[in-house]
Structure formats: structure tokens, C-alpha cells
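Complex record, two chains
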Amino acid sequence: MTEFLLILIIALALYGFVLNKSKANALSEVNIMHSQPHYHGLYSAFMTLVPAIILLISWSFIVNIITNITLKEFFSDVTDSGLVRFYTDGVIAYVEGSSESIIDHVGFLPAVEHYQSLQYNNKILQFIVILTLTLMFFRYSLKFVEVQFKARDYIEKVVIYVMRASAVFAIFVTIGIVLSLLFETLRFFDSVNVFDFLFGLHWSPQMAIRADQVGSSGSFGAIPVFTGTLLIAFIAMAVAAPIGMFSAIYLSQYASDRVRSYAKPIIEILAGIPTVVYGFFAVITVAPFFRDMGAFLSFTNMSSESALIAGSVLGIMIIPFVASLTDDALTAVPRSLKEGSLAMGATLSETTKQVIIPASFHGIVGSFLLAFSRAIGETMIVVMAAGFAANLTFNPFDSVSTVTVQIVGLLTGDQEFDSPKTLSAFALAFVLFFITLVLNVISLTIVKKYREEYE
Amino acid sequence: MNKISLRNKKEKRFQLYGKTAVLVAISFLAILLFNIFSTGISAFKQTYVAVNLNIPLDVNKSEINPRAELNKSFLKMFPEIQSRTERRAALSLLSKGAKYEFEELLDKNEGKIIEGYHWFLASADLDMYIKGTVKRQGDTAGRIDENQMKFVDQLESKNLIELQSNKYLLSSADSREPEMAGIKGAIIGSLYSILIAFLVSFPIAVMAAVYLEKIASKNKFSDLIETNINNLAAVPSIVFGLLGLAIFLNFFELPRSAPLVGGLTLALMTLPTIVIAARAAIKSVPPSIEEAAIGMGASKVQTIFGFTLPLAMPGILTGTIIGIAQAIGETAPLLMIGMVAFVVDVPGGPMDASTALPVQIYLWADSPERAFTERTSAAIMVLLAFLILLNLTAIYLRKKLEKKW
């Protein structure tokens, strides 16, 4: 029914387009019109299509809400909100034919009946109301084909309005992120103290699965998770910073154009490889390698999920970030500075160390910060290669956990939305979002400021 | 040693550091790729065992119990079998999927005599032994014990074990049996997600880019949008997953594990990438062309749609393809919205439960079954092939369509 309605509306819009356009065409044979004929056609099409689609979307939205509220009434004796959701989903799936299982609850069959009648009435009502309104708009739009009518101006106004809405959409995404994280985080802090979360030394959310369990409050001291994240990110930087920076120096100062044109894209491929691939690489290649190395050096207390494995693979992944951003910073240094130094008799390495690097220092720091924030936010490598148990340690051979590992661990699998265990993932994500945001803002400002210095 | 030669030595050393760094970075890439390819290439072949069948013409094929008949025929090849343990050992060399192949064979030969040797899928354990993934130690190899090894040796001596191309890998969905598991379901799921992500993010991103570059006047508000987009581009992908979870699943109550939700989440994630690329492309269109259009009496919107966007399109498309390539490989946000379930059916539409290719890789990599390792690598090879294809398209577009002004 809805599909039929949609097709009907589109047909109507097309008809309006053709009708208005031909009418305007006829007019333009003898007059000089303000707008070209196809704008008159578009005007009719827009007038038919835009209100109809807005109506359709808001209609289905409202019906959805009504359905949910009325269906929940049938299961008012069930207290668990997740179970109610499961029941109502079951009713909808049963009526729509995607499932044939009848749920064992007194309210189920009445609910099915209710939903069927609701759907039936809704379809008819929707069809009549929306079609009538659309027809009215359609009729209305046909009246305006005149010489002086500014169809183009109206169309352009709509187009610009759509563009502005698209740009503002980005802000809504950010607001959405902040609100959705903040909302759940505040709920989390209802049951767990903020300071216990931020400064507590013990993290074991697993204990809070059932309310009647011993130690049901769990412990949500996130310090071990934060230190684990930092440890792995620092190991990653220890791998990526020297390799990335020296490659950037070599490629920007020493390499011939030919070498540069091959080597740079090859290094950048490292950034294009999906992180799940690195995770797999860490598990099947790097972990056994480190284990053999450990055994060779008679080093027995190395964990198979040690921070060193995850950190070094993460480091490989962020090499191109460091390399390309540092490269940008180095090449942005004016030639005159470099040539002046060379002319004074300094070797290229002395020039690099004493002139170019100090002159591009901001840019290099900015690139390091950006790479660091990547390392903190990276998920798949650490999920696959690091452990889930959050140990408070700075020993790179021990197993540590990170913020992202905890989020994935807490939110995949069975989840109940009211337990602090699930909500703690949102609190962690909020901290992660905040820290990466701060790092990005700082590094973007540094890079921008420094770029302006030489412009 | 004098000072100059000391300095020159330092210079040489410094240059060597740089060269080493580049080589190390490239060799990491080479090791990574070599590893994936060397473990994955074997997954494109699969072990088959020949079974001597003899089904006469007068038997009604629809009345045959395929499993029992196949087992009987297989056991007939080893007349010396006495005990039940031996029988079970022999039968475990065949895959559970062999039954389906046999059914297919029966269907195809309705009303004909079936006789002679036919190839049937071997179990994953035998497959790994034949491929040499597990090494033979005495009379055992991995999970193949002495009992089974007797039969394996017999079959091998009669040339009744063969490696054939793996038709399951690309044509079936996930399975508990490694030898029957494939990535078709995951590929379809990925394609649906990516299609939705593209359809949602591309128009919004291009419109936003045009607005920021051509229409918005420089003020606090447009600055806010701009910094906002730059920062969104650097938000960790898992945060977008949580956004998808909170908005699409909990608020709009869309179905879990559906490519639709995955696509919408990926769309939010790729949006800033495309906006940034599109802005750069729009900026590179020379103002003289736009001014000429305006001078001829075109309105601003007419100039944008008639001249600026068509001229900027190669750049916009290149950026879009790169953003889409990123989204194809993205795993973390999909885990958050539940596209990580074990799905045995190929999804029929964007609302069906499904996984995506990178998630399938994650699931298989996590599996304790060793036979999944090579299939994981094979799935990675397919994923990388997709990415290479996309990037080549981007390079081709840039070379072919980009104009130098």
C-alpha cells in the first residue's frame, strides 16, 4: 500500500512537471518569461513531492510510536523492559510473517489482533489522508504558470535550504554523539560515583551481571584501563615515531623524485589496510614471533597477549600517519631557510637537524599528537591482540586492556540496558571521545597556526 | 681524523637512518602481505575424496537416504573394516557437507545409473593434513588419529584424494564446518551496507561541501561547521558505532544486525571524509569559469550545478571512493550494532540479519578451529582485492578526468 502510494505520488510529481513545463513552453513562445519552462515544471514537482515525503516520514514515525505504546500495554505485567521489547518485536514479526513463533504470554494473541487492526486502519487512513493532501498541493502548484512568476527563485531557495541543512547535519552528528554518550554516562553515574570511576584502581565490570550476586556493584575504577591504553599507545608511538619521522626526512630531503614517487604511496598503503587485517597479523604472526623471541632469550614471564604485541602492530599501522604529516611539515619549510643553511657550509643532515626540524617543530608535534589520538581510538588491533583483563601495570610484557577493548567486550553479546556494566561502556566511550577530541583540536590548531607562519 | 670527514661520516649515518626507516616500513608491508597470501592461498583449494558409487537404474532416487547410502558406498571401499570405531574413523574423513553434494548428484542423474568414482568434500581435518597445514607425526597428524590414518594412506595410495578448487568459499555463507564455510553472505552484507552508506553520505556531503565553499559567508557559524567536520573526521570509529547503537537501534528501534543500520552508521563515519575531499575539489575549480557563468547571467545555483560541480566531480568521486574504501574495511562500528552474529543465510535484503566481510574476518580469526585460519587469510585477500580495485578506480578517475588548469 505504502509502495503504491509512493509510486502514485512520484507519478503525480512527474505529471506536474510535464504539465507545467509544457504550459510554460507555450507561454514562452510569445512572452519573455522570468523563469525558463523547466523551472516551472520543477516548481510543480517540488510542490507535490516535498510535502508528501515529509508527511510520509512523519506519519510513519508517529504510527511507530503509537504502535509501541499501545503494544506495550498488553504486556504491562512484565517488568523487564528488555523482555517487553522482545515481546512487542515478536508480535510485529508474527504479523508481518517473518516469524511463526507464538510467544507464551496471555497478552500475545490480543496484541497480534490489535496490531493487525491497527495496521489495517493505518494503511487506509494513511493512503487517503496523504493522497488528498498531495493532490491539493498538486492542484495548487498548477496555478502559477505566469510570465512574471519567479519559479526559479523558489527552486533555488529550496536548493540552498537543502544545502544548508546538509552542512548543519554535521553539527547534528556531533551533538548526537555527545548527547547519546552523555545521557548513558549520566545514568551510569547514578549508580557509580564519578570519582570512583575516574580514579579507582580496580576494574572488573564482569561481576555486575546479576543483581543478586555477591559483589553485585562490580568495581568500575577505570585507571587500569586508562594506563593500559596509554601503555599500548606509547609502545605504538615508540615504533611509529622514529620510523615515520626518519622516512619523512629521507623522502623529503634525500630521496630523488623517482624514489619518492614510489616509496610514498607504498608507505601510505599501510594506512589503507583494514585494521582487522592487522589484528589477524598480530595474532598469527607477531604473537608467535615474540613468543619465540622470548623463549630464545629465556624470557618466560611474557604474556601471549602482552602490550608489546598489540602496541608494535598498532605502531606499524600509524607509521604512515606520522610519515605523511611530518613530510607535509618538512616540505612546508621555505626553501630559502634550507638553502641559506646549505650555503653556509652545513651538511644536509646538519641543516635538517638544526634548521628544518626546529622550523617545522610545531607541525611535527601536531602530527605526533594526531597519530597518538589514532592509536588511542584504534579498536580492532587491540581487541584481537590485547587482553580483556585490565591489569594496573607498566610492564610491556604483561597483558593489559584498553578503553576500546572494554567497550567492545561490554557491548557485544547479550546486553541489558539498565545494568551499570553496559552503561560503563558509554562512560568509557565518553572519556575516549573527549580525549581524542582535545588531542585533535590541539594538533589541528598547532598545524594551522604553524602553516600560517610561513604563508 | 679531521673534522670534515667526521661530519661527512655523520651525514652518511643520518642518511642511512632515513633509508633504513623507509625500508623497514616497506618491509613491514611486504611481510604483512606475504603472510596473508602464503596462508590464504591454500584456502582456494579444497580436499575431495572419491567414493565408489553403484546405484542401479531400478532404484527410486527420491527414496534413497543420502547420508546412509553415501556412508554405505564409502565403507564398501574398505572391506577389512570390522569394529564400529574403525567405521566411525573412516566416515569422519568425509565432510558433513558431502551428503548435500550426494543429494545434488542424485537430483542431477534422475533416471540414470550412477556408478564409478565421484568426488565428495573431505572433512577439514583431512583437508589440513593434505595441504600440509598440520604435519604428520608417526601415524597421526593434527586431529587425524592412527585409525583414520590407515584409511588416509589407503586412499592416497589409490589416488582417491585430490585437491580441487574451493567452490564453497565464494558461494556459501558462514558455517560451523570450516570446509563448508564461505564469505558470500558477508560480501552481500558488505555490499548492502556500502551501497546505503554511499547513497546517504554522498549527496549530503556534496551539498554540505558546496554550501561551505560557495554559499556560506565567512562567519562564526560557518567556522563552527568547518571545525566540526574536521573534528568528526578524527573521531574514533567505535564512537560512531555507539552513536549508531544509541540512535538507530535504541531510539528508532531498527532491527539489530541489519546492513541498513550498518550502512547508516558507516554513512555518518564517511561523511566528513567526503566533505573534506569535495571541498578541496570544489576549491580547485578556477574562479574565472564561475565568474564567466555569472557574467553571462547565470544565477549562483545555476553556476554551481552547471559548471562548478561537473568540473569538480572527478575530485569529489576520488575522495568518495577513498572514503568508501575506508568504510568497507571498518569493523568496530559494526560490532557495536550487532552485525557480528553467526549468520548461515545469505541476506536477501538490507533488513535481514547479516555480517560484513571485515566482521567475518574477525569472527573467523577468533575461531578456535585451526582450519579457519587459512580461510581468514583468503577472506582478507578478497577484501584487499576489493580495496585495490576501488583504489585503482580512484587513480584511473583522477588520471582520466582530472583537468589541469
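Note: The beta strands of chain B are 45-55, 114-121, 161-165.
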